[in-house]
């Protein structure tokens, strides 16, 4: 019973977060100054005031805000995200078309970040100061490099000069390498810093001395004992980094001319395309809630201390 | 007025066109493979992601760049303002310019197999003006549209409520191109999304389009109604055109120089000189006809209500140096509110208002702005001489334009004018411009007919009514001239009227023409035959790739 109640509570919390995000997005876009029909028609419109009024009425923008909000929520309950003002396609279609490129980019970047970051941390935690300083230096550089600049740098070297990877296009996995690197390297820097910190704390724990006394050493010690200990913070961090991936995809997709939710977001926000923006916010909020949920479920498996607390 | 001889003329120019191609093909000095070959895919990097892909709705240039290959028009316009048969074999225009009768070709079919006929013309024009279509641009091109009459299966008459001389220019644009009525009925709601829903009569079919993924066009093998302005008859040479969107300038240039794309559009001015020296790249450049890029001054807002202040702004701006510096010597400064490649451009405007800070000082002195404040700006009765030129948000302008504005700001400071640039979000900007509340507004507008001047300077065309006249200057002469020029097709009379308009708006200081933008296309060495249409948009019908 307890488990069911807890699950119900988690689901209700998740729905609350998604509803809050949708509401925020709805009102934030209405607070942005400017007439939606004006923006829709653009700076070079040749249209008359009649057309303007017609657009406003068709989009329901002449109704009071609270009734627009209720209508929006009503449609949402039925899973209807509406049609894009600008592209005039159903929002679900647009999200569907653009989801996979962003998901594959995000996953590739995440895997890269985890592998590179963890490897860097394991290799340098508790080592000589020079090693750690070198590792810290690259991590700090990676974290603080603007991703559009990193993208252009990677492109210039590996695509324009060395011709190893294409910029974009229908070239499958090779077209994913540079964007994933651009998105993943700064994350790898963050991961490495956090994981090393946690590894070093662990390496000084008394049970490490015990393990060493049993004859364990070097990599075995780090991988089997220290990393396992640090995995909990790594898991939490990964959940949080998911947000950075969604945000970073906007810039990376722009530089590489990749399709995806990021480039869709930019044009939707610029054009005040409310159905698309609210749809994107809903999808990202839902994904974030799901990822947090999965992280919360996995935590007790990684960290036995959490398991005990839950069953108590 | 009758244009019955159009068909004969077209035959002649078609022959000449073929001759010209043949000559240029054999005389090619570069030793490249000179005879066009069929086949191959052309990859094109575009700078902008199109929003809506429906040319009858959208106002975006990039939409036209793609759709021109899919949609044909009634007539075709050449670079010097001449009109040639396309889907219409010939046409008659009523003497009062209110009725245009088109005699259509009988052999044209849409790529879904249906015939192109008078009914198709009527259906498309009716769709454009229907309020439900929410057309942002094409409906404006139809001007005082009254209706379309199907005279017989292949004869169609388009009626207007007023004389409408610019109609042929409008009819030549992709915005008034034709979708298959069958496709419109079945999938008309999907046209904004591009792709197979868009069925035209053009040399290519629209195979796929994904937001952000690019557009793929495939050759229409049945195409045999190319306009006389094309360099070859029959189907296009290319099997496929693959448009990709690369908004980042350096990336677009890098993909071109590294051979990852065949063509890059919108080559940034900073790269043009380097690319000209790159052996594997060719640069094609064409000035955009239309209004160029200008600053319009609002005569209803002080201190610009004083003509002397407006003229001082013109004279104090060192455009030769500013435009050269900001655009790396690649664009020309402007002298007239029409760009030089536009029909009706008045060459006499050139050098008629040279940079003259001394004259600007004198004008401002005589207008009573004789005081100076601590910051060095002029004052009158304790009020600083300040002009606000609101800045468009970055998404709606270019870095170059913003930098040019800074240069103008520095120039005006030299004569004691403070130029401020209040940043507005796009919504506020548009609301203020529609209400006539912006003291100065910049705009660039591409068009092939000088009737554009009416849109910018006729008092009936204020922004609240869908026009572009932000000067709020009510001048009977400008109104009479621009209206009269829209009611005649006599080239001599039109150019005389437009010459007077250009001279008068410069004299009154309604506008500071800034520079002439040009379409700059970079192509790889295996690409041949890329041309420009009348609007200086790159044209791919004659393009082919070697080997």
From TrEMBL, chain A:
Q: How does it sit in the membrane?
A: Multi-pass membrane protein
- Residues in ABC transmembrane type-1 domain copies: 99-299
Q: Which Pfam families match?
A: BPD_transp_1 (PF00528), BPD_transp_1_N (PF19300)
Q: Where is the protein situated, by its record's location annotation? A: Cell membrane
PROSITE patterns (UniProt xref): ABC_TM1 (PS50928)
Keyword annotations: Cell membrane, Membrane, Transmembrane, Transmembrane helix, Transport
Tell me the SUPFAM superfamilies matching this sequence.
Answer: MetI-like
The answer to keyword Membrane applying to this record is yes
Q: Which residues cross the membrane?
A: 12-32, 103-125, 137-160, 172-195, 234-256, 276-298
Gene3D superfamilies (UniProt xref): MetI-like
User: Is Cell membrane one of the keywords?
Assistant: yes
> PANTHER family of this UniProt entry?
DIPEPTIDE TRANSPORT SYSTEM PERMEASE PROTEIN DPPB-RELATED
What family does the Swiss-Prot or TrEMBL record give for this protein?
A: Belongs to the binding-protein-dependent transport system permease family.
Protein known as: ABC transporter permease
Organism listed in the record: Amycolatopsis ultiminotia
From TrEMBL, chain B:
InterPro entries with a match to the protein in the record: Peptide/Ni-bd, SBP_5, SBP_5_dom
Do the record's keywords include Transport? yes
Q: Which residues form the signal peptide?
A: 1-27
Q: Tell whether Ligase is among the UniProt keywords.
A: no
Q: Which UniProt keywords apply?
A: Signal, Transport
Specify the superkingdom.
Bacteria
Matching entries from Gene3D superfamilies are given as: Dipeptide-binding Protein, Domain 3 (3.10.105.10), Periplasmic binding protein-like II (3.40.190.10)
Give every Solute-binding protein family domain span.
83-452
> Which family, according to the similarity comment?
Belongs to the bacterial solute-binding protein 5 family.
Listed PANTHER family:
OLIGOPEPTIDE-BINDING PROTEIN APPA (PTHR30290:SF9), PERIPLASMIC BINDING COMPONENT OF ABC TRANSPORTER (PTHR30290)
Entry protein name:
ABC transporter substrate-binding protein
Give the source lineage, highest ranks first.
Answer: Bacteria, Bacillati, Actinomycetota, Actinomycetes, Pseudonocardiales
């Amino acid at each position: 019973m307890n488990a069911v109640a807890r699950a119900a509570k988690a689901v209700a919390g998740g729905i609350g977060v998604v509803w809050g995000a949708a509401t925020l997005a709805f009102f934030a876009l209405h607070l942005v100054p400017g007439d939606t029909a004006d923006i829709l028609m653009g700076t070079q419109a040749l249209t008359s005031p009649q057309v303007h009024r017609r657009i406003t009425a068709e989009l329901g923008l002449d109704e009071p805000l609270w009734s627009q909000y209720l209508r929006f929520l009503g449609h949402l309950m039925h899973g209807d995200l509406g049609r894009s003002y600008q592209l005039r396609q159903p929002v679900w279609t647009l999200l569907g078309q653009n989801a996979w490129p962003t998901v594959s980019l995000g996953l590739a970047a995440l895997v890269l970040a985890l592998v590179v970051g963890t490897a860097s941390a394991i290799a340098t935690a508790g080592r000589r100061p020079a090693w750690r300083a070198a590792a810290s230096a690259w991590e700090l550089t990676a974290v603080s490099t603007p991703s559009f600049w990193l993208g252009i740098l990677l492109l210039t070297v590996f695509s324009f000069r060395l011709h190893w990877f294409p910029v974009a296009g229908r070239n499958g996995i090779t077209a994913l390498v540079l964007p994933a690197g651009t998105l993943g390297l700064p994350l790898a820097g963050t991961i490495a810093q956090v994981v090393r910190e946690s590894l070093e704390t662990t390496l000084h724990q008394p049970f490490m001395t015990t393990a060493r006394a049993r004859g364990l050493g070097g990599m075995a010690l780090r991988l089997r004992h220290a990393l396992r200990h640090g995995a909990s913070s790594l898991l939490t961090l990964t959940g949080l980094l998911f947000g950075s991936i969604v945000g970073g995809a906007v810039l990376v997709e722009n530089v590489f001319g990749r399709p995806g939710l990021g480039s869709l977001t930019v044009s939707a926000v610029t054009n005040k395309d409310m159905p698309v923006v609210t749809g994107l916010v809903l999808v990202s909020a839902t994904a974030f809630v799901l990822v947090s949920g999965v992280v919360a479920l996995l935590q007790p498996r990684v960290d036995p201390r959490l398991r005990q607390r839950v069953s108590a | 007025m009758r244009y019955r001889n159009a068909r004969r003329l077209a035959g002649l120019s078609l022959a000449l066109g073929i001759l010209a191609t043949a000559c240029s093909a054999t005389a090619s000095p570069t030793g490249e493979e000179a005879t066009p070959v069929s086949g191959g895919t052309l990859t094109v990097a575009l700078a902008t992601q199109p929003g809506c892909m429906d040319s009858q709705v959208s106002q975006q240039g990039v939409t036209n760049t793609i759709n021109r290959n899919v949609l044909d028009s009634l007539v075709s316009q050449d670079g010097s303002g001449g009109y040639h048969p396309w889907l219409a074999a010939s046409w008659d225009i009523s003497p009062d310019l209110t009725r245009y009768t088109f005699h259509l070709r009988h052999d044209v079919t849409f790529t879904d197999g249906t015939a192109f006929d008078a009914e198709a013309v009527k259906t498309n024009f009716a769709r454009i003006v229907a309020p439900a279509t929410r057309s942002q641009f094409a409906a404006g091109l139809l001007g005082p549209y009254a209706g379309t009459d199907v005279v017989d299966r292949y004869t169609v008459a388009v009626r207007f409520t007023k004389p409408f001389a610019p109609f042929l220019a409008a009819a030549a644009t992709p915005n008034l191109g034709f979708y298959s009525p069958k496709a419109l009925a079945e999938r008309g709601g999907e046209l904004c999304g591009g792709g197979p829903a868009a069925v035209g009569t053009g040399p290519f079919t629209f195979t796929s389009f994904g937001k952000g993924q690019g557009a793929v066009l495939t050759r229409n093998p049945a195409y045999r109604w190319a306009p006389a302005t094309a360099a070859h008859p029959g189907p296009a040479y290319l099997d496929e055109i693959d448009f990709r969107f690369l908004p980042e300038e350096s990336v677009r240039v890098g993909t071109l120089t590294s051979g990852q794309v065949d063509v890059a559009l919108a080559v940034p001015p900073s790269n043009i000189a380097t690319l000209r020296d790159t052996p594997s790249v060719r640069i094609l450049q064409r000035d955009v006809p239309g209004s160029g890029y200008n600053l319009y001054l609002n005569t209803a807002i002080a201190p610009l209500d004083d003509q002397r202040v407006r003229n001082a702004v013109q004279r104090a701006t060192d455009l030769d140096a500013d435009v050269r510096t900001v655009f790396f010597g690649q664009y020309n400064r402007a002298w007239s509110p029409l760009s030089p490649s536009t029909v009706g451009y008045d060459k006499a405007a050139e050098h008629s208002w040279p940079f003259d800070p001394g004259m600007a000082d004198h004008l401002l002195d005589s207008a009573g702005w004789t005081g100076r404040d601590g910051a060095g700006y002029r004052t009158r009765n304790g009020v600083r001489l300040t002009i606000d030129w609101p800045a468009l948000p970055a998404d709606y302008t270019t870095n170059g334009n913003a930098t040019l504005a800074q240069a103008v700001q520095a120039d005006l400071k030299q004569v004691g004018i403070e130029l401020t640039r209040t940043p507005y979000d796009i919504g506020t900007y548009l609301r203020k411009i529609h209400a006539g509340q912006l003291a100065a507004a910049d705009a660039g507008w591409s068009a092939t007919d000088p009737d554009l001047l009416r849109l910018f300077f006729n008092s009936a065309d204020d922004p609240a009514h869908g026009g572009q006249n932000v000067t709020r200057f009510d001048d009977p002469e400008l109104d009479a001239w621009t209206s009269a020029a829209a009611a005649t097709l006599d080239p001599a009379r039109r150019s005389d009227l437009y010459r007077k308009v250009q001279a008068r708006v410069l004299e009154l200081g309604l506008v500071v023409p800034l520079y002439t933008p040009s379409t700059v296309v970079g192509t790889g060495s295996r690409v041949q035959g890329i041309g420009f249409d009348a609007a200086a948009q790159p044209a791919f019908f004659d393009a082919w790739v070697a080997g």
